[in-house]
Batch of 3 targets.
Target 1
Amino acid sequence: MNMNRELQTIIAQFDFPGELVDCEPIKAGHINRTYRLRFALPSGDTRDFVLQRINTFAFKKPVEVMSNVHLVTEHLRAAMERQGQDPANRVLRLVPVKGGGTLYQDESGSWRAYDFILNARTVDRVDSLEQFREIGRAFGQFQRMLADFPIDALYDTIPYFHDTVKRMEAFEASVAADVKKRVHEVAPEIASIRERMGAMGQIVSMIADGTLPLRVTHNDTKINNVMLDNDTGEALCVIDLDTVMAGSALYDFGDAIRYGASTAAEDERDLTRVHLDMALFTAYSDGFISETAQGLTRTELENLPLGALVMTYENAMRFLTDYLDGDVYFHIEKADDNLARARCQLALLKDMEAHKPEMDRTVLELIDKYA
Ligand code: GN1
Ligand code: MG
């Protein structure tokens, strides 16, 4: 077992059963640090857990993150029980800290633990249309089951997270500061971002003038945030709830399309390979709208494709901002990873712009199918 003393001390703070027999890092996401733990029980069985260090550079107030996660998971659990569904393995369950609560903090950081979701996996690229439809259904159901959640009980774990206009201001500040002297390398990318500032501020203004309502949203709906049953392929559990906040349904729909309906990875360097796959777009939209057609307003539903463009733009801008800042936010492996990600997202955005009328038509058809 490859584990240091620090980790042993942390593990000892949580109310795990049995004896620790295995601990291995899992590569998950750009933000948090994650381990899988295995415990041997007196019965001879083993039980697995996830231990995670919350990145407090991204999440400044881990206590508030854990409050949100706790309230949301309890709400989902109760909703499933009312529907006669067993929430075990379908809703994240936090492991209590021995001293109380669900968060352990010391000099090493802020830690929490979950039950491991059994016999399930995540995918970074979709295998089939049916799988992506299923993921759309899962995020749609997540949205639907939280429709009656008291939204004011949620903290903004990252203030202005999807406030695209605030992100534009941060981007301009980074261009002006140019701390790494990288601005001269990226003039075309900066121009692409600036050209679209008016159009891409639309969701923010529609929230501000009341055209779009605030909902409980996940805000990070990459396909790898849904656990899929190894045998049946069914979506079991939505994970990574740290950014659950008040937001627009367009964000959740849009970010899923950005990541999952692209023909290439998020950081593909060969831009000729980066396109929006309309069959994938249609499959996801079908799953998502099948769950949300009754609960979302007509305006929200009709504007879902705008969400895909805005989230792709926003991520391009965030990656480029981080490149200019010297890669302080997103984990990188190669020096130009954030630049590659930004370029890829801009290429995807351009293809989405070309397909916008087709996306709009598809969504209107699905509204008719399910409304
Ligand atoms: C981050 O943690 P992860 O990899 O699921 C980021 C998202 C970005 C995404 C891009 C808290 O998500 O907003 O869209 O990377 N999460 C946070 O891959 O900033
Ligand atoms: Mg994640």
Note: The mean pLDDT is 96.
Target 2
Amino acid sequence: MEKKKFLEELRKIDINGKDATQLYNEISSLAMKYIQTSEKPNRCASYLSIEFLIGRVFYNNLLELGVLREVSEILKEKGVNIALFEEIEDAALGNGGLGRLAACYMDSGAAVGIPLYGYGIRYKYGLFRQKFEDGFQKEIPDDWQRFGDPWSIRKEEEKQIIRFADMEVHAVPYDMPIIGKRINVLRLYQAEGSEEAEKISGVLYPPDDTEEGKLLRIRQEYFLSAAAMGDIVREYEKRHGNDYKYFAEENSIQLNDTHPVFAIPELIRVLKEKGLSYLSALKIAKQVFNYTNHTILPEALEHWDVRLLKKILPEISEILLSINSSARWRHRKEGYTPQESAATSIYIHSRRAFSMANTAVFVANKINGVAEIHSEIIKRNLFAAEYAHHPEKFENVTNGVAQRRWLELANPELSALIDKQIGRNWREHFEELDKLNAYTANEETLLEFIQVKGKKKEQLFRYIEKTEGVKIDGERILYAQVKRLHEYKRQLMTAFALLRLYYDLKEGKLKDFTPSVFLFGAKSAPSYFRAKGIIKYINEIIKLINADPETNGRLTGVFVTEYNVSYAEKIVAAADVSLQVSTAGLEASGTGNMKFMMNGAVTLGTMDGANIEIVEKAGGENNYIFGARVEEIEELRKGGYDPNSYLKEHPEWKKIVETLTDGTFSDEKMGYFRELYDSLTIGASWHKPDHYFIFRDLEEYYQTILQSNYDYKNRKGFAQKQFKNVANSFHFSSDRSIKEYAERIWQL
Ligand code: 26Q
């Protein structure tokens, strides 16, 4: 980029009478004029994902272009604070970890110079925006394009036609440059051509409880898969015409979970259309595709009805049946037992449906989990049959996060402190962070660190005061649990612990309690009844606590509204304690945990997902681990777990849990709280009572919170734990992850 010219032109911009949106578009468009995407080499990797949770692009792009500081200064001269652009809302084309991971990987691919090309959907409406009304979550459509979309370029001439049995749809690419050592492209497709067509890129995760909803989901997944495959094949043909023998050599395609798995039968379909035999096409597919699993929860494993597929994608359905036959033939040849055959079956007779995970597992060259423990669990349980015959197909690539967004941008104050000790190289070479270990016992460094934390907390508290109307003052220890709302993440367990703190404080049982803030941030899927009940319950508890003058100043709860990437940037920088308390075995990795660690929060959590690696790197003495390990949970699941007898023996917790039904709190007769109570004590929706083992871990959780709270009294000692986490977070950079993908999976 010609930095100087850009800045010169920026100086000439007239700001008079322009609002934030206008200026945002003008400056962004100006920057875009200077951005030239890198040449695409013959061999590259494509990353297919139904979500890309990019968040705010403006600051990140200026940062990557190396002009953020200068732009800020020039605007200042004109009387504009660059923070003005915080008014521009995030593009939330994703809903959680998997989507944010895709965004961090795009960032890292460009940063380390790997040719990595993203393919996704340009949803008109991203993840809903959240409001609370009386503590109930309300959803508002996310019309992110009302601010314009200056960082994308519509590529009319590269549009394609996607064919369903009953309709044709135009897939129009919008290219977003991803800036780093290389400039890669994230290509998001918009569906056009008719009102029906437009629905396909209408919203992220449309409800799929009706047949119509399911068909729309299938259309979305196929739309993404077919557009991406069409693009990749067309690029290839520019070089080799109709000779496909180099296709596998030049392409590696990563399937981000099963949502883009239709890319497999689609590639086979296209290659057959070009004249290849089914078997040659399958052979190519087996070389180019790789599959990342992100969850073992049975309800999140996709199965598509053969009847629905036949209706709108008959050819794809036929090809899936062929792949199923190929798999059966191969499994017989390789001696899979009947049980193993059943477990790996692509077409599942009893359900009249295709298992998208098994399709991916059979075809993929490499299959990976997203943290060590998760990769072990998929080898041992979910994909054990395949692992028994093809251990060479399995890899682990522990997730990572982009330190440029999650440390440099989110926490310039801590970044400056790091720069002072070890220089500026860590932005591209995060392993250099290790050098901070020389300063973890340095008094002056720790005092500066404490100051930085204090400042970030102060900034966050003022922001919370403005946006949530909750006033927080004085020195506080900040506990944060921010992530999607799901029962397995156990926000409900934190709610119980928080309520217990409140009662114990009131009864004078907690001497020397360091004033604390418990911060929650989470969106619930609109149709997830129980998750919505948990949100309301937490909000009720917070209302009770914050209104009580007796505990005021010592305990505050806050549930931030509209938790998103930009809010996360503020929270991870400020938190002292990162709450990561999922039932062991169920959080595949977590990436929030890494963002907190990098910013110097200790992890208070279970031995699950990447928490295990965090503790391994930063030391058990610098984190707070509690609760049942995976092995114990697996034992408990086999039988012998009785939540009711636990409650009988622990009246202090029984009293807390019964606030769900004894009238302490009101859900306005909506039945949320009663249903939650039943789910814990009787069981519901095919689950046993307390399916996520809250009562197994609750008391230990509470004691661990108290321990951390007590340790914080020694502020310097606690700061040392926190700073050790920063110093040892280099493993969790997505630069490291993406290099592992490039070397071990894509062979780039
Ligand atoms: C499946 C079927 C039907 C409808 C929806 C879905 C569905 C949609 C989204 C299933 C799963 C997802 C998203 C999963 C996800 O975000 N998983 C998270 O991935 C992160 C990145 O690897 C991990 O860090 C988290 O542990 C994991 O929960």
Note: The mean pLDDT is 97.
Target 3
Amino acid sequence: MTGVTAIPRHVAIVMDGNGRWAQRRGLRRTDGHAAGEQALFDTVQGALDIGLEWLTVFAFSTENWRRPVDEVRFLMGFNESLLLRRREELNERGVRVRFIGRRRGRVPARLRRRIEETEALTARNRGMTLTFAFNYGGRAELADAARAVARRVAAGELDPEKVDERVLARHLYAPDMPDPDLLVRTSGEYRISNFLLWQLAYAELCFTDVLWPDFRREHLFEAIDEFQRRERRFGAIET
Ligand code: IPE
Ligand code: IPE
Ligand code: MG
């Protein structure tokens, strides 16, 4: 038998197109972000229904600070309120919620507290792990990992000759997270935008024109169907 038939273990999504969705309706960009909540929760339910183990969503990048202050402020408040409103429901569904990204610096203290509370509330859940990449950049993550490794070398705890892929991977934000098998990006953009640079090395990429607020579980299932028709080789040849 050829081809992949199993569902992916880990799906990562770049939730893009909120601004354009809103602009097409004569709404504010921030209305598009708000409309993305329904897309996210429908997708989460679909993922739970099919027994996905890991779902990671890109919610705010280290480059998104370049946006107008009003939009950034909205996104901080929106994410805080989303956690407050939705964490009990996620907890009841057995979802373990986690965050990857830089927590310090510009992330408001209130949002940071909600993140920590939500992680603590759901830490023991054994259903799907839903990871929010927030104030996340792939390059920042690799720089942070390199700094952590350098510190251990400087402290004499680690032989520099022993620094290899496994050592670096152990210093990423979520060292226990398996690499994504499938990356989905919405809104017809064909780029990674600094998402999970290390972890996406062998992910299958799937792009759709659907704008994020219109995304529903059916779109996730379509992407997974496409994934199942791909042939993954990981640099080897078919035998
Ligand atoms: C994605 O939608 C959400 C974030 C980046 C926070 P956008 O806000 O990037 O929407 P477009 O790409 O401008 O349409
Ligand atoms: C990527 O989308 C980041 C998130 C979805 C959070 P962007 O809209 O920021 O990416 P670019 O700027 O189009 O590359
Ligand atoms: Mg965008």
Note: The chain is about 45% helix and 15% strand.
